[in-house]
Amino acid sequence: MHAWPASEVPALPGSGRDLRIHDTATGGRVTLAPGPVARIYVCGITPYDATHMGHAATYNAFDLVQRVWLDTKRQVHYVQNVTDIDDPLLERAVRDGEDWTALAERETVLFREDMTALRMLPPRHYIGAVESIPKIVPLVERLRDAGAAYELEGDIYFSVAADPSFGSVSGLDAEAMRLLSAERGGDPDRPGKKNPLDPMLWMAARPGEPSWDGASLGPGRPGWHIECVAIALEHLGMGFDVQGGGSDLVFPHHEMGASHAQALTGEHPFAKSYVHAGMVALDGEKMSKSKGNLVFVSALRRQGTDPAAIRLALLAHHYRADWEWTDAVLSEAEERLARWRAAVSRPDGPSAEALVEEVREALADDLDAPRALAAIDRWAAAQTADGGTDPAAPGLVSRAADALLGVAL
After folding, report:
1. Cα 201 to Cα 8, 47, 84, 138, 155, distances in angstroms
2. 131-165 pLDDT, tens digit each
3. How do residues 87-119 score in pLDDT, each as one tens digit?
4. How far apart are CA 26 and CA 10, in angstroms?
5. How many separate domains does the chain show?
6. Rounded distance, CA 104 to CA 93, Å?
7. Which of 14, 136, 367, 400 is the most exposed place for a label (fewest CB within 10 A)?
8. How far apart are the first and last CA of the chain?
């Protein structure tokens, strides 16, 4: 599976700051100081109802992480998956009377187009669950043979007891985990499980559903969490710098994935830090596929909305905040974009070197994009009110907005 084309990232004078970011596992700030190559895995979409604004907000957050790292002159090894086989995808295909593979392919193409329009930097490896099955099967077999997994009516479950550090990503108690498991695709009430929280690694073939050769596991298809583990271990190895996604992935997905990997390798941690983006709401409720209250990037683009304005609307909210999409949010972003473009279109302006450093510092401080926007707002206001005499300033501001925020002026 291929990703989308990369937009050019302008070079800026000087160098960026090491990123200080909130780590879910510790509940506090950590300073990320990767080696020459920073490693990040961000969980991708299940390809139906793409790309809604909640998706866009999440990938915007981790695009900023990449841009901060690139500004420190590091390379970035970014990996993202596509869960192109899963119960919700099959259910949607049945509902709409569509072949599930056609649905997945169409929505993945749309997602790529939206990411390109929003100037999101692409992953080095963009990998589907289906193409990863030959890598997944041996991992499930290893877990089973090591006693970290067991069979139940043909299905294979992971035993959370196999990982002594289980629970260290989310910090939740057993009852909270059980409730979230039931809400987010688990089956805590299934009889015969050793622990209600044990997640499925391999689902035995069901009548009328797709399945693949599972070698000694029998025909079937992979569970959700082992998919990301197989892809991350293959391309990043243990101890990569950031595991990212929306806050709804803290449990069970990221908790279970960490335990799978740690039980497989005997090493800890799976990721050095766990970073999660907030949820986006519409009309007072979280945007979700089940509620159908989705605002789509592609629909806004078809209406003629400038993708740079969509991006500014996302950047106006701190990545960890839960916030609500409204017409006013988009209108404010469009007005900001017009002000910025007018300001950088002049032949000269107020000096901008200090502004670049202010934007760098804001982003290094837990990706404080709203503070970065406010800094450019002040420069644009000064440009409008008083102008300036530095002919290099407008170009520098334009390059900084593009390089650090992904906003093309």
Report:
1. 40, 21, 16, 11, 8
2. 999 999 999 999 999 999 999 999 999 999 999 99
3. 999 999 999 999 999 999 999 999 999 999 999
4. 34
5. 2
6. 9
7. 14
8. 31
| Alpha-carbon span 158 to 149, nearest angstrom | 4
Question: Domain with 31 in it: what CATH number?
Answer: 3.40.50.620
- The two three-digit tokens of residue 340, written as one number: 């910025």
Q: Are residues 188 and 96 in the same domain?
A: yes
Length of the chain as a residue count: 409
Angle between helices 224-235 and 255-265 (to 10 degrees): 50
269 and 331 in a single domain? The answer is no
Say if residue 125 is in the same domain as residue 253. Answer: yes
CA dihedral 296, 298, 299, 300 (to 10 degrees): 90
Q: What is the CATH number of the domain that holds 339?
A: 1.20.120.640
Question: pLDDT-based confidence at 283, cuts 50/70/90?
Answer: confident
Work out the angle between the directed axes of helices 327-344 and 369-385 (0-180°, nearest 10). Answer: 50
